[in-house]
Design brief:
The chain has about 160 residues and is of the alpha/beta class. Helices cover about 30% and strands about 25% of the residues. It has one domain: Rossmann fold, CATH 3.40.50. The protein is globular.
Amino acid sequence: MARVLIIAFGNPLRCDDGVGWIAADQLRDQIEDSEIEILTCHQLQPELADRIAEAQRVIFIDASVGDPPGMLEVQNVASVPYSPGSFSHQLDPARLLACSWELYRHSPEAFVITVTGENFGYGTHLTSTVAALVPSLVAGVKSLINTPEPQPAVYSYLP
């Protein structure tokens, strides 16, 4: 059972939408702990609920759309009532936590770290704005891993 589950999601073929995948690769290179599991996926799906139910803490990493580009944001995620719709293979972190609760009666402590992207067009490279935030993103994830009881927070960082 993973103590911490990191789920980086997005499309690595859509420029800044791949920031989570790049952060996950760096985390894999830097973390050697059998209690930390790092996954990458294109989107959140109900099939992840069993992995989430086994974790004590889940950290989601994603790109976001908005202004200003290059903003790094960390938020607590709380489960919301799960109600599968016609598009049940695409969930947000809160609904995926609810799915874990409904199926396994466990919804761990969870955080989402987002980076506001600048370019979501076709390509495999991050913009310089987002690439400059990857070290801070990785450091933020490592901080959430190593803090025994992170305080509920919503905070943003602009370089």
